[in-house]
Amino acid sequence: MIMVIVMMEKKNKMMMMVWMMMMMLFLLAAAASLLLVVVLTMMMMMMIMMMLLLLLLLLLLMMMMMMMMMIMMMMMMMMMMMMMMMMMMMMMMMMMMMMMTMMMMMMMMMKTKSPKKAELKDENQL
Less packed terminus of the chain by CB within 10 Å, N or C? Predict the structure, then answer.
């Protein structure tokens, strides 16, 4: 670059001036492009950050939903278990009642049987 300017200096001053202007323009263009690139990159970064934030939010929401679902499932399971337990208890109660009734019936039968035996004995004695 400097060599070219020196060469131009030998010919005439006008060419040198033009060259300098050109170089200045080039430098300005480069600076502007750099600035543009930087700005664009910044914008892109911002966009990416925003996207990431949105994704994070979505993930959080999903997690919350999953947690809610899990809790709901747990609740449902608990309810089911409770229902099963209740059913079992009811069945047990029913069985107990049946057993009690059977026992009562047996007792009644025994009670009814015993006097007859006594009567028969009395008849025999007579």
Answer: C
Chain mean position to CA 2: 66
Rounded to whole angstroms, the Cα distance separating 52 from 56 reads: 6
Is the CB of residue 57 less than 8 Å from the CB of residue 46? Answer: no
Asked if residue 51 lies in contact with residue 36, where contact means CB atoms within 8 angstroms, the answer is no
Tokens 């990159």 belong to 41
Sign of CA dihedral 54, 58, 60, 61: positive
Mean pLDDT of the chain: 78
Is the pTM above the cut of 0.70?
no
Neighbours of 23 (CB within 10 A): 13
Distance CA 1, CA 24 (A): 12
Q: Which amino acid is at 57?
A: L
Return d(Cα 4, Cα 23) in angstroms, integer. 11
- Calculate mean pLDDT across residues 51-72: 83
